């Protein structure tokens, strides 16, 4: 018997807890196996347990099972032979599979035949809806046919033909069906209604006979419907059910009841267990089978025969012996010790370090093979600015869009400036090309600007203003191409732009133009949103199909598309295929009728021609045909419109959706994921499920046209395929406030109890009241500056005042933007940062020249004051050596520089009156690397910087550089580099007797200053942000000068941590960091990257230290990571002699055992249950001998004189002994088998994520600690007297022990606890 066939009948007979998740093949092979197994057990039971006087019903059942074994499936000829040769007491059992019915024919002594019919498999709904088992009565209707009729050959022939046809034919009106897309389709996952047997056949027979008075039984039927990612679910075999019904109804007697049936079932299942042992079934399945047999035997009680009980006991012992033997193997594998022979090891020889990964790097470093990359000349390589090109609007916009992909502030400013100047004048005839260019520009610009302007409300406002200007241009082009758009809402509301924070006059004008355009569009609109799921005559797609006058080319394209759709639908082809397959079925059936069975071969033999034809007929199927369009006329129009969407409209719709949904809608809880099966356009997709992707996609033959030709099963909706969400009703939460302003509470008076403790109640109310009223915010600001209720030097107040001043708010037609110049005299009383912001906003709206002049004076005053602060902070920064304070001072310098440079952040028309090039360069130099200055400042200065060739401006530039670089010497005049590097100006210092001329370059946009191509005073970010730099120097800011060491670029101006440090960045990105120190006799040390020692040294000697190599002595010192400049004799040291082995030792002269040596491998095998290879540290040397450290566990093990013994260690680590394997064998704990924890006189279990997987006869459990830096563990002492594990008494210790016990428990273990011996 094949294993898979046997396993299948085990599932059907025993119904174990774990069942298949898909329907198994209940074809001829498996049913034959089931019948043969029952027939064989029936023979054995009759021989061993039935006396001849009682054998009559048993012999009839044996004959019945013989018929089932010989005729699978039943043929007409065999069935007629069975019926014609029936004797009194015989019975025939038939499974009419196509009708889901069982039929039992019983012949009594008077020659009458009783026909019993019943359902073979209950419906899936009844099975799943039942609580527990189904209570069913068997058999169903029973009809007695008189002997005269039953023996009539004509009756027998018609009966056989009727049953044979019903067994092979599925009739549509009894098949289970379901409704989908208005079509009624067959549901193959449910069972067929048996009424053609239980009603039609019995009705016919009732006309020839009369209802039979028989005894019926009630069975508690256990069934299940298991289905997971499968075409058909797993169901219990209907053949097994009808066999049980036939056995139970035939073996009933008034004296014994159902004892004989139950005894045979126990015997049958016991035989199955024997077969299971021979087939080596899994232990859990054998245990379950044994338990079910034991339960059935217990139910029999004293009525079970002694012989049956003895046989069951033998089977139980057989299973118990097998389970115990398997369990002993599990225990033996757990307790098996590794090969341990320390006396055979060359421990001292194993201290030679292999260093397979790091050896090449170390040798190259010692030889000094690294080459320098110091550049001889500097020449900038800036990308050409697209605004300098004059190739037409479209090409210029395309070039700007490409430049923005570099995520450059300058490119973003170029694009914003170009849009502000030229977008209104852009008129082209190629509308589609222009629409695509604008859409691409919106997408690319947003991707870069959103990243660069993140967390800056003002920059975000500029970005949104630019995006809406682009959208207005796109909308105008789309409306010109598709006038129908004017009848529908533009989706963008005029009030959407109110939260924008703007402070330049041109920005106010741009917003006003956008609002005016939106008002006109809304006034013209007749209908609602285009983004809707509602389909009616006002839907845009339907209206466009009706009203649009299409060109000849478009009509031809649509006609071609329709013909393509009709051809793809393949309706005529589907009908032809159905007729062809049906004709083929008739041919096979006619051939089957005239064919005969091959004698000497079983039914179903592939060499039998008749059986082969019958199998072909049963396997004939045809794929369903699904109409591609919805049935409803308007919905079909919408789909056809989406199949050929006008390109301009498609671009407009996609861009509008992205702008309002992805950009202007705040993020919130994501919607439930949609099920999208396929799509035809970017925004047209489907909801529902196509027949072609369901289990209804094929039907068996014969079938009607209605079963093959089905309606469309899909419901079409607009869908965002990129974000996986439906499009309709997506703009309800559209609001840009989260991008442009901080949300402040307006109900402060009602929440006075929530006033923070660090401010007064008056401050609390004033803070919330400044923003109250969109028309009086400037008056509130003026009043507060005069009243000084708030602390105007706080950052929170600065944010509040600037947002109140910059937010544009509502505006009626013809009105100007509000501002209030009365607050100007009081501005000097507030912080410089707030004052500069408010003055810049006033200048944007002021028209009074006196107000403008006062603003100029205040800005210059604020500029010089912040410049003085900057000088003072820079001096403090240079003198400070506290690394924790350096960063805060550096941020203060950058912030003050940004405030000072913010005095230029005004309208471009005011720049000539405020520009001081000396201050511009000086301040830009201090914030250029940190980018703290607002983006708008640099953009405002672009193009407005005075030309350095003018004498006055040259003096300012030279003075600014002199302030930064004390050694600067005036040289030839400044020269501007050619485009695209025209932002750079260059000169050279004058030469002297001992000083050479140096090239000087300055970037007027960002203030970058280079001397001989290198930044002066600060290391490049590529070095200061390098991981090796951060490891040893953190965020420390160093003053640097050119390095005098060969192949090195920079050196520190001062002694740092007692060392002079040299830097050089190689072409491959590696940083070379060398030091010289008088403490080391001037020797040169080089920092080694720790990653080169990966898999060469333990992790604690790789990641937790820094490696300094002395290039003179060829020694590598491992300094602690928390103090990388501490050179001490207490550190580990690696010796790399030119000849001889490379070794490594600690401060006590203990040598490190190589990670690839035999000694290390032997120890790893012993401790692999606790720790991984890279986390073990093995050392040797006096006085402890061989020592193993587990740093993550804070544990150590020591081998002394070939025995593991306790030891005392000075470093305070907890260290404990283990036992040598070949002296004292491991003692099994008695639980947690499958978990490879070390088991000695006590047990340690690390606390981590427990992973477990199923093995053949048990479970494997591991505890994952790979991501833990320090591994907590639970220690349990083995109490041999009470047979228990004693933890530390904590709740976690008890829970963890119980969890491991549950995961690794075994059914044999559950019956007898090895530790507790019970």
Automatic annotation (TrEMBL):
It catalyses: Thiol-dependent hydrolysis of ester, thioester, amide, peptide and isopeptide bonds formed by the C-terminal Gly of ubiquitin (a 76-residue protein attached to proteins as an intracellular targeting signal). InterPro entries: DUF6606 (IPR046541), OTU_Deubiquitinase (IPR051346). The keyword tRNA-binding does not apply. GO terms for molecular function: cysteine-type deubiquitinase activity. Residues 9-273 form the DUF6606 domain. Keywords: Coiled coil, Hydrolase, Protease, Thiol protease, Ubl conjugation pathway. Its EC number is 3.4.19.12. One of its GO terms (biological process) is proteolysis. It holds the Pfam family DUF6606. The keyword Hydrolase applies. Residues 541-568 form a coiled coil. This is ubiquitinyl hydrolase 1. It comes from Hydnum rufescens UP504.
């Amino acid at each position: 018997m094949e294993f898979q066939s046997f396993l299948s009948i085990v599932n059907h007979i025993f119904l174990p807890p774990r069942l298949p998740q898909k329907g198994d093949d209940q074809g001829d092979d498996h049913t034959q196996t089931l019948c043969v197994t029952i027939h064989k057990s029936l023979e054995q039971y009759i021989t061993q347990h039935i006396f001849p006087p009682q054998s009559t019903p048993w012999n009839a059942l044996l004959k019945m099972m013989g018929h089932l074994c010989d005729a699978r499936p039943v043929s007409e000829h065999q069935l007629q032979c069975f019926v014609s040769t029936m004797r009194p007491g015989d019975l025939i059992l038939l499974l009419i599979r196509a009708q889901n019915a069982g039929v039992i024919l019983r012949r009594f002594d008077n020659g009458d035949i009783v026909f019993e019919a019943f359902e073979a498999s209950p419906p899936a709904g009844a099975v799943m809806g039942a609580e527990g088992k189904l209570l069913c009565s068997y058999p169903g209707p029973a009809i007695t046919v008189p002997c005269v009729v039953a023996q009539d050959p004509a009756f027998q022939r018609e009966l056989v033909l009727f049953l044979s046809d019903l067994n092979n034919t599925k009739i549509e009106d009894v098949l289970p069906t379901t409704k989908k897309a208005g079509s009624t389709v067959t549901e193959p996952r449910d069972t067929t209604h048996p009424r053609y047997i239980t009603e039609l056949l019995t009705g016919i027979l009732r006309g020839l006979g009369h209802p039979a008075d028989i005894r019926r039984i009630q069975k508690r039927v256990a069934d299940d419907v298991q289905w997971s990612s499968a075409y058909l679910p797993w169901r219990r075999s209907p053949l097994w059910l009808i066999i049980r019904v036939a056995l139970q109804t035939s073996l009933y007697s008034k004296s014994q009841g159902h004892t004989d049936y139950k005894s045979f079932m126990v015997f049958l299942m016991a035989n199955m267990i024997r077969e299971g042992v021979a087939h080596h079934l899994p232990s859990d399945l054998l245990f379950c089978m044994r338990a079910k047999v034991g339960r059935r035997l217990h139910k029999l009680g004293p009525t079970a025969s002694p012989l049956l009980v003895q046989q069951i006991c033998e089977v139980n012992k057989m299973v118990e012996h097998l389970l115990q033997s398997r369990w002993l193997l599990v225990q033996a594998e757990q307790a098996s010790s590794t090969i341990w022979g320390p006396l055979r090891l060359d421990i001292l020889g194993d201290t030679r370090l292999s260093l397979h990964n790091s050896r090449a790097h170390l040798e190259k470093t010692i030889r000094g093979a690294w080459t320098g990359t110091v550049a001889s000349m500097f020449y900038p390589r800036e990308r050409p600015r697209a605004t300098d090109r004059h190739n037409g609007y479209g090409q210029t916009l395309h070039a700007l869009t490409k430049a923005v992909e570099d995520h450059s502030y300058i490119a973003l400013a170029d694009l914003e400036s170009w849009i502000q100047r030229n977008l209104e004048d852009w008129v082209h005839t190629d509308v589609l090309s222009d629409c695509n260019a604008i859409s691409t520009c919106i997408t690319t610009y947003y991707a870069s600007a959103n990243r660069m302007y993140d967390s800056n409300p003002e920059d975000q406002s500029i970005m949104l203003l630019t995006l809406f200007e682009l959208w207005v241009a796109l909308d105008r082009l789309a409306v010109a191409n598709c006038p129908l758009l004017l009848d529908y809402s533009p989706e963008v509301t005029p009030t959407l732009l109110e939260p924008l924070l703007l402070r330049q006059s041109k920005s106010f004008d741009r917003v006003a133009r956008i609002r005016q355009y939106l008002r006109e569009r809304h006034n013209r609109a007749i209908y609602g949103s285009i983004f809707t799921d509602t389909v009616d005559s006002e839907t845009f797609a339907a209206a466009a199909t009706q009203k649009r006058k299409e060109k000849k080319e478009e009509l031809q394209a649509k006609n071609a598309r329709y013909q393509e759709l009709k051809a793809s639908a393949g309706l005529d082809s589907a009908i032809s295929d159905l007729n062809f397959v049906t004709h083929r079925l008739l041919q096979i059936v006619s051939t089957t009728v005239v064919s005969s069975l091959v004698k000497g071969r079983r039914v179903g033999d592939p060499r039998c021609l008749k059986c082969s034809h019958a199998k072909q007929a049963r396997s004939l199927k045809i794929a369903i045909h699904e109409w591609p369009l919805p049935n409803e006329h308007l919905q079909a129009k919408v789909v056809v419109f989406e199949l050929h969407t006008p390109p301009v409209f498609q671009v407009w719709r996609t861009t509008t959706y992205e702008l309002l949904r992805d950009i202007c809608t705040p993020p919130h809880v994501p919607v439930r994921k949609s099920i999208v099966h396929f799509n035809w356009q970017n925004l047209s997709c489907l909801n529902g499920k196509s027949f072609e992707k369901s289990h209804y996609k094929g039907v068996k033959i014969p079938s009607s046209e209605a079963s093959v030709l089905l309606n469309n099963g899909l419901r079409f909706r607009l869908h965002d395929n990129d974000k996986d969400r439906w499009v309709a009703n997506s703009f309800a939460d559209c609001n840009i406030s989260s991008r442009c302003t901080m949300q402040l509470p307006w109900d402060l008076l009602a929440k006075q109890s929530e006033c923070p403790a660090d401010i007064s109640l008056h401050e609390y109310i004033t803070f919330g009241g400044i923003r109250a009223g969109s028309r009086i915010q400037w008056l509130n600001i003026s009043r507060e500056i005069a009243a000084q209720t708030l602390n105007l030097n706080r950052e929170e107040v600065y944010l509040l005042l600037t947002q109140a001043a910059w937010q544009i708010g509502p505006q009626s037609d013809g009105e100007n933007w509000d501002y209030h110049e009365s607050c100007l005299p009081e501005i000097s009383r507030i912080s410089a940062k707030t004052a500069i912001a408010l003055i810049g906003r006033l200048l944007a709206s002021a028209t009074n020249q006196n107000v403008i002049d006062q603003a100029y004076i205040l800005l210059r005053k604020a500029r010089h004051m912040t410049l003085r602060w900057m000088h003072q902070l820079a001096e403090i920064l240079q003198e400070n050596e506290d690394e924790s304070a350096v960063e805060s001072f550096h941020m203060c310098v950058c912030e003050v520089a940004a405030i000072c440079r913010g005095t230029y952040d005004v309208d471009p028309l005011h720049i000539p009156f405020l520009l001081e090039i000396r201050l511009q360069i000086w301040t830009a130099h201090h914030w250029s690397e940190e980018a703290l200055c607002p983006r708008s400042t640099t953009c405002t200065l672009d193009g407005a910087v005075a030309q350095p060739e003018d004498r006055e401006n040259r003096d300012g530039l030279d003075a600014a550089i002199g302030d930064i670089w004390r050694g600067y010497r005036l040289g030839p005049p400044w020269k501007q580099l050619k485009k695209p590097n025209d932002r750079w100006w260059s000169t050279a210092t004058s030469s002297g007797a001992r000083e050479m001329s140096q090239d000087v370059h300055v970037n007027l946009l960002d203030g970058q200053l280079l001397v001989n191509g290198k930044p002066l005073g600060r290391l490049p970010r590529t070095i200061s942000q390098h991981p090796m730099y951060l490891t040893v120097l953190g965020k420390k800011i160093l003053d640097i000068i050119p390095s005098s060491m060969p192949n090195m670029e920079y050196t520190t101006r001062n002694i740092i941590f007692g060392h002079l440090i040299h830097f050089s960045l190689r072409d491959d990105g590696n940083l070379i960091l060398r030091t010289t120190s008088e403490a080391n006799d001037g020797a040169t040390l080089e920092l080694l990257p720790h990653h080169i020692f990966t898999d060469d040294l333990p992790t604690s000697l790789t990641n937790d230290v820094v490696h300094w190599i002395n290039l003179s002595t060829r020694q590598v010192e491992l300094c602690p990571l928390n103090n990388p400049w501490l050179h001490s004799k207490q550190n580990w040291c690696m010796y790399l002699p030119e000849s001889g082995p490379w070794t490594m030792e600690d401060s006590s002269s203990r040598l490190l055992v190589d990670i690839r040596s035999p000694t290390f491998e032997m120890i790893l095998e012993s401790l692999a249950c606790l720790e991984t290879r890279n986390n073990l540290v093995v050392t040797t040397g006096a006085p402890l001998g061989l020592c193993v450290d587990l740093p993550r566990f804070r544990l150590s093990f020591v081998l002394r004189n070939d025995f593991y013994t306790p030891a005392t260690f000075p470093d305070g680590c907890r260290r404990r002994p283990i036992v040598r394997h070949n002296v004292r064998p491991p003692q099994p704990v008695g639980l947690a088998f499958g978990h490879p924890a070390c088991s000695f006189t006590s047990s340690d279990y690390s606390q981590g994520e427990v992973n477990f997987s199923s093995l053949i006869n048990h479970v494997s459990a591991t505890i994952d600690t790979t991501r833990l830096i320090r591994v907590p563990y639970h220690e349990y002492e083995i109490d041999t007297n009470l047979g228990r594990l004693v933890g530390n008494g904590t709740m976690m210790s008890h829970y963890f022990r119980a969890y491991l016990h549950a995961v690794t428990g075994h059914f044999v273990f559950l019956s007898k606890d090895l530790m507790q011996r019970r």
